[in-house]
Amino acid sequence: MASSKISTCLIFLQLIFLLFVFNSANAQLKVGFYKDTCPQAEAIVKKVMDQVMKVAPSLSGPLLRMHFHDCFVRGCDGSVLLNSSTGQAEKDSPPNLSLRGYQVIDRVKTALEKECPGVVSCADALAIVARDVTVATMGPFWEVETGRRDGRVSTFSEPLTNLPPFFANISQLISMFRSKGLTVKDLVVLSGGHTIGTSHCSSFTSRLYNSTGKDGTDPTLDSEYIEKLKSKCKVGDQTTLVEMDPGSVRTFDNSYYTLVAKRRGLFQSDAALLDNSETKAYVKLQSAATYRSTFFKDFGVSMINMGRVGVLTGNAGEIRKVCSKIN
Fold first, then answer.
1. Is 79 annotated as a binding-site member?
2. Which of 35, 77, 259, 322 is buried most deeply by CB count within 10 Å?
3. Beta bridge pairs of residue 312
4. Model confidence over 260-271: pLDDT tens digits?
5. Is the dihedral of CA 81, 87, 89, 93 positive or negative?
């Protein structure tokens, strides 16, 4: 009887220890992590981004997407920023070839290093930039948790298996988000980031010319929208850019959901949101809502959730001096 009680006590103590270790690792990611070591960090990033957005507002979408692509591969560790002399880094992988704005992150990092050498990670800089470009396009503000450290590994193959492809169905999307600890609501909310930015025709022309509907079109895509897209994107077009949220490409709003509800989502992964009861309900809710609605608050919450994926904290990783190469 006594030994049974001792065993139970030991198991309880082990659980408490594991919970402590888990929580202490996550506790290192917090709002205001740099308040003592680099109190002007976010102000420095904002100053640079204000300058960038004045001359290159089209980078808002790509920079927001870069943070997403970083977090879904090896966690939010800045690995998407690393260069490879042999072309074998994440940024060289097909899903990342359309990313733009690396020079902006370099510019931000240079400003941070000038004020606080070796303090602010590239992963944190990217997370703050993602928030700031959202705000710059009239989107929501959220408090960015910081304390991430930078990874030392970046491989060509991992984006191919970790980033949700534009042709994914709803089951694949849900599975990939859940594998990162994200919910179905996070999926449909973060998809709303497609309200800003553009896409190459090659990401969706299969829906126009090589699908299962009439004349090879995708039956889940609005027929009038198909004709508009065909006028811009011919078979084999690899260079033309198309707005993901026509008429609102540089304004962060909930009009993306209106388009998806009307079967005018650009990607197959957008249309897939209508194939699940929870994601469809959210699309319908936001498409019928007034400007901002609950989407702004939801987006901030889901960006915080995504920003916690696979982070390196404490003594793990490093603080890169230059974002494109390990120390």
1. yes
2. 77
3. 149
4. 999 999 999 999
5. positive
